[in-house]
């Protein structure tokens, strides 16, 4: 897979999509990657939107699943869904599996049911099952906004055990945007939380039980968006753990996700009030 994840540089051309289109027609894959990484992040969505469907598919294929997923994460939900839905199911599944779980569920939930089923059929069993579970939630509750990517350990786990686990799975965990580690019991019920910084600076022989903050603030998976917004307005939480009726840890809802959802809901309400929205 070609590497496009280097530091961006300023692109002098006001219409990079024309250059990109020309390069795609010549099938010069490395040149496509070199040009694409030079496009300012604020111009990526517009550049992709100006390409026809075939060229969009070709671009994502050249970038590879990991880099393509990074592009998808930065697009609007509507544009991201359209891009993924027009890919062959197996290629779409590779990209969708690289997305954060909340974005993965949003895209699959937005597209036609048959398309979503085709893509899930090409995904790994665990990812497909996790995506299906998130689709049961409404968009305006904690469960519909949460990410299932999080780090959890048992109370008796030592700091050394956790550090070893972090090293062993560094490639996977690097995409989690983790600030906290959670402590759960054998039934996966949330019992504590610990800042990653405090954990990494602690004596390696200490256990999670010795270091954790017990009974952390958490939110029920059906907590409405308006109440989530109130919680995040009250305190500067980066994210909050999401639990079910039995206090089992399900995921984490992030501040950005709550504020983005609030903005989208307000915009939708405005469009409805103005008679401009086609959605019921």
Describe the protein's architecture and organization.
The protein is α/β, with parallel strands linked by helices and 280 residues long. Helix content is 56%, strand content 11%. It has 17 helices and seven strands. A four-stranded mixed sheet has the order 1-2-3-4. A three-stranded mixed sheet has the order 5-6-7. Strand 6 (239-243) and strand 7 (249-254) form a beta hairpin. Helix 5 packs across helix 7 and helix 8 (101-110) packs across helix 10. The longest helix is centred in the C-terminal third of the chain and has 19 residues, at 255-273. It is globular and about 60 Å long. The model is unreliable at 1-14 (pLDDT under 50).
SSE order and pairing:
Blueprint: H1 16-26, H2 29-38, H3 41-49, H4 53-63, H5 65-73, H6 77-85, H7 89-98, H8 101-110, H9 113-122, H10 125-134, H11 142-145, E1 151-154, H12 159-168, H13 170-173, E2 180-184, E3 190-195, H14 196-201, H15 208-211, E4 213-214, E5 219-220, H16 225-234, E6 239-243, E7 249-254, H17 255-273
Helix pairs in contact: 1-2, 5-7, 6-8, 7-9, 8-10, 16-17
User: Which strand order does the major sheet show?
Assistant: 1-2-3-4
Alpha plus pi helix count: 17
How many β-strand runs?
7
- Report the portion of residues in β strands: 5-15%
Distance between the termini: 43 Å
Largest sheet: 4 strands, mixed
What's the helix-strand series? HHHHHHHHHHHEHHEEHHEEHEEH
What would you call the shape?
globular
Rg to the nearest angstrom? 21 Å
Extract low-pLDDT stretches: 1-14
**Mean pLDDT across all amino acids:** 87
Helix amount, in percent? Answer: 55-70%
Assign the structural class, choosing from mainly alpha, mainly beta, alpha/beta, alpha+beta, or little secondary structure: alpha/beta
